[in-house]
Write a structure and sequence with these properties.
Two copies of one chain form a homodimer. Chain A is α+β, with helices and mostly antiparallel strands. Chain A folds into two domains: 12-21 and 169-346, Nucleoside Triphosphate Pyrophosphohydrolase, CATH 3.90.79.10; 35-165, Transcription Regulator spoIIAA, CATH 3.30.750.160. Chain A contains ten helices and twelve strands. In chain A, a hairpin with a 2-residue loop joins β3 and β4 (78-83). The first copy, chain A, is globular and about 65 Å long. The two termini of chain A are 40 Å apart. The interface between A and B is large, with 40 and 40 residues.
């Protein structure tokens, strides 16, 4: 049973840098990175989109895969890997990834990352352009019927393997709060993650947060997570939730895995006359508290929030006028870092 | 007396691309730009900050300036210009720029840009890091008393000359609106720019917008502009305005001048019981109308708004839940383009 230790107070920018902690150097020099990352292209063509970044040990493992599935090449002095030109449709790519991920999991490669205990059994969509149209089809669609030429969607793969391949993943985060215009007070519903969770056990989290699986819309994912994680009824979500933007940041785990993420952001301001209480439902959350904003900030600065949750709360505080250009010297640095573009085209 | 012509309806991303219309190619290849831009460094040292980008014709003109003021060099096959190592304090740099700009204006270089008819007589601050601390001192401070080593502020220069040097400038934009929670209607106060204005005559603008001169705080600039442009009393601004973020984009004018800009964004939601009407005061605005949001959107899509005002309205619509990940295919592309970092370190 692990519990995070408070740090000495951190600045908002330090909290952002804990989450957005990876990027290609401005000089483009890869040799100053701690290891040479290979670029994962969609097809054996240097102009095809870069889908992810692959560490040397994973690249070595891929070289044992069937040669009619994977191509290895160099371009601009950078190692590249891609599907072969015959693996050229969503159906074929999804099938290759399914077989590979299941076999690697069973064989115990990178057990802490995709071993059977970490296997999610949930498929994430991979897009040619992660900032483009979210057109992953519902699971009920037969992928072999898809028209490759008109799609941004490229294929889907097991969630727990995404960080092995450095691909962009997508999630939803919602801040559920109460505002008192009279005394300008704001209270935020803050869950504590179960101490049995494999990642960030015992850390504080956002009111509602979760990943977007392949084939589910952004808002539908939010509705589902709101019930599963916080016991919020669907009609309450649909009535009071507001889409308010997105954050994007490039996170590298302490073990070195790459997790570039996009989080779609929602606010749910509980009206004074609506008696809403957030409660755990699915065991991922230990408990909920409705904390005054100053207390939330104190816990954030003490490093008690999961890194990407602090970032979403900072975005909340910017949009709601608590963090301003006049009270935060790193205002622009924070805002631009919260909306990064990953620069995959430069890799 | 010019009046803009409506275009066929544009997408939100097209409107963003009209404003954020310039960037270094991902490949880093400068020769695919239409002209080779020189990088303007603070000092004759390749590691000193890049302050701006200079077009060939301006670079040629600078070569006629005193050699004890300006250095010309190359690094990584790119032309560089900087102050000489003796021009090494805010006071000295501001003095060099003041004399140069005044002389160029009188001599008629780039008359359409900084000729006497365009001269603003307003000083803009230049920072080493445009995303760093806004520490330009008030005008009452003698610059020779400043401690160069602890400042992000580098010097100040005439507003109308900023685009000749491709430096980042800063402004404030506020959306003044009325919300009716009953029928989810939103009406926005929209000014029409005077048809006598030199830039964007007759185009629609944001409720309140203006530049931040050297030595004035962000919020203080907003208070000043709210009165000058829209006759909003100071106590109304201070009571109801909320800071809500910033946008940053790299704009190149049709004549080729470079205007990377940061706009700090504010919302002023007029309470139902406050009788506020926006009215022109200083002659920059011809008239105000309070338009329903759908009509604002129609005029935006028809290209009738000044380019950077459309961008601020798009940010408003994202933060207020009108543009969402489920109804806008370019959602992430728009959000990340609205918070660009200029990548000066790559020039």
């Amino acid at each position: 049973m692990s519990e995070p230790e408070p740090t000495s107070p951190q600045s908002f920018l330090q909290l952002v840098e804990t989450c957005d902690n990876f990027g290609i150097p401005a000089s483009g020099a890869r040799h100053i990175l701690s290891e040479e990352l290979a670029s994962w292209h969609l097809s054996p063509d240097p102009t095809s989109p870069v889908l992810g970044l692959i560490r040397p040990e994973v690249l070595e493992q891929l070289k044992h895969e069937p040669t009619h599935h994977w191509s290895f090449w160099h371009h601009d002095n950078v190692a590249r890997v891609s599907f072969t030109s015959s693996i050229n449709t969503p159906a074929k790519r999804s099938a290759v990834m399914k077989e590979l991920c299941e076999r690697w999991s069973v064989e115990g490669h990178w057990a802490p990352q995709i071993g059977p205990t970490k296997w999610r059994g949930e498929l994430y969509p991979i897009y040619r352009n992660p900032f483009g149209k979210l057109d992953a089809p519902p699971d009920s669609i037969d992928e072999s019927s898809l028209d490759e030429d008109t799609l941004n969607y490229a294929f889907k793969m097991e969630r727990s393997a995404c960080a092995l391949f450095g691909v962009v993943t997508f999630g939803v985060h919602m801040t559920v709060y109460q505002d008192s215009p009279e005394d300008h007070s704001c209270r935020i519903w803050v869950p504590k993650r179960a101490r049995t969770k494999q990642t960030w056990p015992g850390y504080l989290d956002n009111s509602v947060a979760g990943g977007i699986p392949s084939g589910l819309g952004v808002y539908e994912s939010l509705v589902k997570e709101a019930m599963e994680e916080a016991s919020i009824e669907e009609d309450i979500v649909r009535k009071y939730t507001r889409a308010v933007g997105a954050v994007s940041y490039f996170y590298r785990t302490s073990a070195g895995w790459l997790q570039p993420e996009v989080e779609y952001i929602y606010d749910l301001c509980i009206p004074a006359d609506v008696p809403l209480e957030l409660k755990p439902l699915d065991g991922e959350v230990e408990s909920f508290e409705c904390l005054p904003l100053p207390e939330v900030v104190e816990k954030m600065r003490a490093g008690l929030f999961k890194a990407n949750c602090a970032v979403v709360l900072i975005d909340f505080m910017i949009r709601h006028g608590y963090i301003t250009p006049d009270n935060e010297p790193d205002f622009l640095e924070i805002i631009t870092r919260l909306h990064g573009r990953f620069d995959y085209e430069r890799w």
